[in-house]
Amino acid sequence: MAETHPLVLVAAVALLDPEGRVLIAQRPEGKGMAGLWEFPGGKIEVGESPEDALVRELAEELGITVKPPCLAPFTFASHTYEKFRLLMPLYVCRRWDGTPAPLHHAALKWLRPRDLIARKDEFPMPAADLPLLPMLRDLL
């Protein structure tokens, strides 16, 4: 029988600007996977919907306000890391209030998905995020 890993539910969002760029955030020092670039979001708390988790996380991490109807389900990632299994729905959002700021991240960057793919060594991402890039590229 295969070793079981605890399931971690995380919601993430591809914030898209009018130029077709997506926002990525760099994980800060002291956190797991520090230095890697990711889509903003976070763990889904007990009793929370993925949309509610994103509204909360985006306010806490980026200082922006997002309304649940502006979050469009897009795809998901399922990936087994060494100590846990990640299940991550990815939403697309084109409308929010405020300007994203790195309140809990080391840095933020706006890039077109095709540029993220081409510059993957410059902007390394967690393994679960990588298969999402071609899907975003094809969407835009």
How does this structure look, described?
The structure is a single chain. The chain is an alpha+beta fold and 140 residues long. The protein has one domain: Nucleoside Triphosphate Pyrophosphohydrolase (Alpha-Beta Complex), CATH 3.90.79. The protein contains three helices and seven strands; from the N terminus they run ββββαβββαα. A four-stranded mixed sheet has the order 4-1-6-5, with helices on both faces. Strands 3-2-7 form a three-stranded antiparallel sheet. It is globular, with a radius of gyration of 14 Å. The mean pLDDT is 95.
Described by strand count, sense and barrel closure, the largest sheet is: 4 strands, mixed
Helix and strand composition category? alpha+beta
- Helix amount: 10-25%
Average of per-residue pLDDT values = 95
Number of DSSP-assigned strands: 7
Query: Segments where pLDDT lies below 50 for 5+ residues?
Result: none
Q: How many structurally independent domains?
A: 1
Gross morphology is: globular
The CATH topology turns out to be: Nucleoside Triphosphate Pyrophosphohydrolase
Q: CATH superfamily name?
A: Nucleoside Triphosphate Pyrophosphohydrolase
The largest beta-sheet arranges its strands as 4-1-6-5
Total number of helices: 3
Offer a few descriptive terms.
4-stranded mixed β-sheet; 140 residues; 3-stranded antiparallel β-sheet; 3 helices; alpha+beta; 19% helix; Nucleoside Triphosphate Pyrophosphohydrolase
Concise structural overview:
The chain is α+β, with helices and mostly antiparallel strands. The protein is built from three helices and seven strands; from the N terminus they run ββββαβββαα.
